[in-house]
Amino acid sequence: MSGVRAQRRTERGRRAERRRTARRHAMAAAASVVVAVGTVSGLLTAGGGDEDTAGPRPEVSGSALYVPPLPARPSPTVTTTAPASPSPSPSRTTAKPSAPPAPKPSVQKRKAPEAPAPRTVLASLYRHPQSQVLDWVRANPGDPRRAVIESRIADQPAAVWFAQYDPGAITGRVRAVTSGAAAAGRVPVLVPYAVPDRDCGGASQGGAPDLAAYDGWIRNFAAGLGSGPVIVVLEPDSIALADCLSSGQRAARYASLARAGKALRAANPQAKVYFDAGHSGWHSAAKMAAALREAGAATSSDGIFTNVSNFHTTADEASYARRVLAALGGPSHLGAVVDTSRNGNGAPAPGEWCDPAGRALGRTPTTRTGEARIDAYLWIKLPGESDGCSGAAGEFSADYAYDLATG
Question: In Å, how far from its chain's centre is CA 165?
C-alpha cells in the first residue's frame, strides 16, 4: 500500500508541475502581446516626416504638424469656499501626479458606431489643413474609430497655436494662416503663446526670454495678421495664473499685455483680441476683473476668453463671463469667447484635471451664440490632445479623442 500511495503522490506532483509550466507559458505569451501592442502604438504616435516650416509644432511628433501643444494642464480649479492663499501652490489642484502615468495599451478595439452626419458650424470659422488629428485621420483609413473622430473633431474649425519664440519667422507663419483663411472666406482663431514665464514653470513652460523680446515678437506676430477678420486669443493663463509672479513682475507683464493688445488691433482693425479671464471655477469675477483692468483689457482688447483647456459648462462660463465684463467696465461692445472643446459633460470631480474620464465634446465652434455679450464658442484646446495622462502632454491620443467624441 505504501508503494501505491507513493506512486499516487508522484503522479500528483507531476500534474502540478505540468500546470505550473502551462501557467508560465501563458504569462509569457500575454507579455509578448502587451509588448507588441505598445510597439505598434509607439509607431503610430511617432511617425516620421519632413520638418514643417509653415509653423510651430509640438516636439512629441515628427509628423507634419502645425498646431503646438496646449498647456499640459487646464487652469487650476478653486472652489468659492476655499480661502485665498498667498502661495501659488494651493491655487492648483493638489491631486496633480508627480509624473503622468503611462497610457495603458489595449489589445482590443471597441467597435465604432456608424459615422454621424457632420454637425453644421454656422459661423465661417477657419479649419487649418494641418493638425495632429488630421494627420491621424489620414494615416489610419482602416481604423474603426476614424469616421467618428473625423466627422466630430477633425472636420471642425479649431484654434492655431503659436508657442515657439521665433522672432524672425513668426510674421510669415501667422501670414500663412491668415492668408489661407482669407482665401477660403473664413475667420481664423490664433493663439499667441510666448509670454515669458508662461505656465509658472509648469509642463508648458517656455516663451520669450524677457518682456522686451516678447514685445518685439508680438509686433512681428501682428504684422502677419493681414486685413481680414481674425480672432486672437492672447496668452492663455497669462493673467489668471499670474499669482506665481511677484507684484513687480505682474505689473510688468500686464503692461506688456496691454501693449500687445494695442499692437494687434492697430495692425489689423478687423482683429478681435481677447484677454485671459480664467474660468468660472477659479477666481471671483471681481478679482478677475481687477486683474484684467490692470492689464488694460478695458481699453486694449475686445473682451475676454474663458475655460481654455477646462471643462466647465457653457452656461456657467457665459454667466461668469458676463459678471467679469460687468465688473471690468469699459466700452459696451466688449464681449467674451468660451472654449467649449471638452465641456459637454461639465467639470469632473475636484482634483481630476489630467485627461479625466467621462468628458465629452461641447458646442461646436460658432460665432452665432444667441447669448448676450458672448461673441463665440471656440475650440481653443484641441480635442484629443492629451494633458499628459492619455499620452505625452500635447500629443494626440485617438483613444482620448474617441472617448470625447462619444462621451
Answer: 19
The Cα 23–Cα 176 span in angstroms is: 59
Residue 189 has φ and ψ, to the nearest 5°, of: -115, 120
Opening angle at CA 394, ends 172 and 36, nearest 5: 125
CA distances in angstroms from 358 to 2, 342, 345, listed in the order given? 65, 10, 7
**Active site (annotated) includes residue 199:** yes
Amino acid (one-letter) located at 317: E
Reply yes or no on whether 210 is catalytic.
no
With beta carbons less than 8 A apart as the criterion, state whether 277 and 321 touch: yes
30, three cell numbers: 500575454
Q: Which of 167, 164, 150 is nearest to 52 (CA)?
A: 164
* Torsion angles phi and psi, residue 232, rounded to 5: -115, 120
Query: How many Cβ atoms are within 10 Å of 387's Cβ, its own excluded?
Result: 25
Q: What is the residue-level pLDDT of the chain in tens, covering all 407 positions? A: 444 344 444 444 455 455 444 444 443 333 333 333 333 233 222 233 322 323 332 222 222 233 344 454 444 444 333 222 222 222 333 333 334 444 444 434 444 444 443 333 344 999 999 999 999 999 999 999 999 999 999 999 999 999 999 999 999 999 999 999 999 999 999 999 999 999 998 888 899 999 999 999 999 999 999 999 999 999 999 999 999 999 999 999 999 999 999 999 999 999 999 999 999 999 999 999 999 999 999 999 999 999 999 999 999 999 999 999 999 999 999 999 999 999 999 999 998 989 999 999 999 999 999 999 999 999 999 999 999 998 998 999 999 999 999 99
Laid out side by side, the sheet with 160-162 consists of: 160-162, 189-192, 230-233, 271-276, 303-306, 335-339, 374-378
Give the N- to C-terminal CA distance of the chain in Å, as an integer: 68
Please, what's the b/e burial string for 74-85 (b: 16 or more CB within 10 A of its CB; e: otherwise)?
bbbbbeeeeeee
Residue 302 CA to residue 376 CA, distance in Å, equals 12
**Residue 253 CB-half CA count within 13 A:** 29
Residue 99: exposure state from Cβ atoms within 10 A (0-12, 13-18, ≥19)? exposed
pTM: 0.74
Q: Is 387 a catalytic residue?
A: yes
Active-site pick, 237, 316, 355, 403: 237
Of 143, 276, 387, 403, the catalytic one is 387
Catalytic residue among 199, 355, 375, 403: 199
